Amino acid sequence: MKKISLIALAVVLCVSVVVLAWSAPASAARKKISLDFATFWPAVDFQAAVGHKNWMKTISDRVMAETKDYEIVWTEFYGVHPAKLLDGIESGTYDVGTSGPGYSPGVFPLWAGPEYPGEAYRKNAYTMSLTIQALHEKMPELQKQFDRTKMKLMHFWSTGPGYFLMVPGKDIRKQDDFSGKTVRAANPASVACIETLGAKPLFAPMSVALERFEAKLIDGILCPTDTPKGFGLGNYVRHVVSVPFSYHFVFFKVMNKGTYDELPAEVKKIVDEVNAVYPAYYGQLRTWGEADGLEYMKKLEGYSYYDPGKENPAEYAKWVSATDGLIKKWIGSDATKKAVWEKYRELDKYYSTTAPYSTWTHSWPTQPVPPTGKK
User: What is the pTM of this model?
Assistant: First the structure.
């Protein structure tokens, strides 16, 4: 009887081992694809904490749900110097990164045009992001700029309209007020704009700008309104001046070409599908984030808001007129640059005046829902 019991126990143990082997989680056999993600945004900014994390999570979740053999593992780097990001992607130090043409002047020269001041609609970050992505897709000349790099474009997106954010006592109401002030610029187009209006530009990354604000060496910055909250500019600036004609900063997300080429076909498909829907989502999220930043500013002591386009159209027209020659100078006699600018204005008008794009409104304080891109 004892012998029979021992035999029975052995059989049960063998069956248990087989059952456990068959019921082991599929993830145990999955190949891990480790990817490094780098961005200049601080980890606390909504673009990183919400936007970039949603992008990574969406891809990871879909790979787990739609493939049997792979999983994505991300390592994240925040606050990387923007000028060093592209070098890091090219060298393979990072697999994926977010930056913009304006942070690396000369690498993507044709993208300088859409960032210049000019008579454009520039309605919000949503329409501006759709405009930029469509411009890339419709202009082979822009696409060719990636051919000479080791980067694979994921997608474009954009800030919303520009604002001068000024420290207390350095508000701007008329063009003469620019004289004697130092204002930070994020790209060469903004340098030219600030200089033409009469102020002294500081072309520097945000980390340097924050140091200068702390030392009281600069008076303001030309940028969107998410920065007082996300980058800590609210410690310094109080006056908000709306100048949509003046500013457009283009962002892109890129992957090292070697990394992209080595991805399994089913993973590539997921990455491509997610990328296809993210210009619109990031545009909506940035519109939300810029509204959130403005609401944050309203709670600061000494806050003021000035919209010269509505409150003093004649004065605002002077500012627009003063910078009118900048885009003409950039174009010169170059037919390709002219075509880029004209297509940019055409698409900007289309997305800013055509429903459902033009009628879309941000959902603040509720964040937009991230799309899966699943077809």
Answer: 0.90
